């Protein structure tokens, strides 16, 4: 599933925030130097600009290092993530921890790092991954997938077999929960660990979907 994160904008969100902060700083300098503006009005405008500059810089820090919002445009992670869901992705999760099997992650698409995808981690570096009639095997042992995969019964017929393939060190193997409709590591290969943006943590919109990402 490719994530749409204001893809149509000519600049990235951090870049736009930096531009906005720059414009606000220039406006602040100009306002302070325009003597024709009454002093009390000038002070009020400068204070507002100062607050806006601080808010912009704090937003930049949060988006860069803490959390980022994404929109889900397709159904490859159903039923875990539905079309139209908006999620918060924790960028701190893997600064202090490791990627684990079962995590739902956002990552830069290996074939085009300018695009972001969301999938579930299934295989880790050094492991051998195989899909056999929809059943995931790690090191030739079937794993119990406790998260929903929509693979019960008849759905297995649309899931092609894969592997076995060994996951190189420093890379991960990902799958969509909707295995019958997902472009994932079966098609584009392994995901370098450095491509991982963060862990999908929370669905915040729409309100009926408010929940942690499991």
Task: Compute the number of strand runs.
Answer: 13
What's the total helix number?
A: 3
Which regions have little confidence, pLDDT < 50, spanning 5+ residues?
4-11, 153-157
> What is the architecture of the largest domain at the second tier of CATH?
Ribbon
Please state the CA-atom Rg, rounded to the nearest Å. Answer: 22 Å
> Would you tell me the overall average pLDDT?
84
Number of domains: 2
Largest β-sheet summary: 9 strands, antiparallel
CATH class of the largest domain: Mainly Beta
Secondary-structure element string: EHHEEEEEEEEEHEEE
How is this structure best described in words?
By secondary structure, the chain is α+β, with helices and mostly antiparallel strands. The chain has 2 domains: 7-66; 68-212, Umud Fragment, subunit A (Ribbon), CATH 2.10.109. It has helices spanning 13-33, 39-66, 185-188, and strands spanning 2-3, 67-71, 86-90, 104-108, 116-123, 128-132, 135-138, 141-142, 162-166, 171-175, 191-192, 196-205, 211-212. Strands 1, 2, 3, 4, 5, 10, 11, 12 and 13 form a 9-stranded antiparallel sheet that branches. A hairpin with a 2-residue loop joins β6 (128-132) and β7 (135-138). α1 (13-33) packs antiparallel against α2 (39-66). The radius of gyration is 22 Å and the shape is elongated.
Keyword list:
single chain, 214 residues, alpha+beta, Umud Fragment, subunit A, 2 domains, 9-stranded antiparallel β-sheet, 4-stranded antiparallel β-sheet, 28% strand
């Amino acid at each position: 599933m490719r994530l749409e994160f204001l893809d149509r904008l000519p600049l990235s969100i951090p870049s736009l925030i930096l531009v906005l902060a720059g414009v606000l700083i220039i406006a602040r300098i100009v306002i302070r130097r325009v003597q024709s503006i009454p002093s009390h009005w000038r002070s009020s405008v400068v204070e507002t600009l100062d607050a806006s500059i601080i808010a912009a810089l704090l937003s930049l820090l949060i988006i860069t290092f803490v959390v980022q919002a994404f929109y889900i445009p397709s159904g490859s992670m159903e039923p875990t993530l539905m079309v139209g869901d908006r999620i918060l992705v924790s960028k701190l999760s893997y600064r202090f921890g490791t990627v684990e099997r079962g995590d739902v992650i956002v990552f830069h698409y290996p074939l085009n790092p300018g695009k972001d995808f969301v999938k579930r981690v299934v295989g880790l570096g050094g492991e051998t991954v195989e899909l056999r009639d929809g059943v995931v095997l790690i090191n030739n042992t079937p794993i119990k997938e406790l998260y929903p995969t929509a693979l019960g019964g008849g759905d297995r017929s649309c899931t092609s077999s894969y592997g076995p393939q060994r996951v190189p060190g420093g890379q991960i193997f990902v799958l969509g929960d909707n295995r019958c409709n997902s472009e994932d590591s079966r098609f584009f290969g392994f995901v370098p660990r450095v491509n991982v943006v963060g862990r999908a943590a929370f669905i915040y919109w729409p309100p009926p979907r408010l929940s942690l990402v499991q």
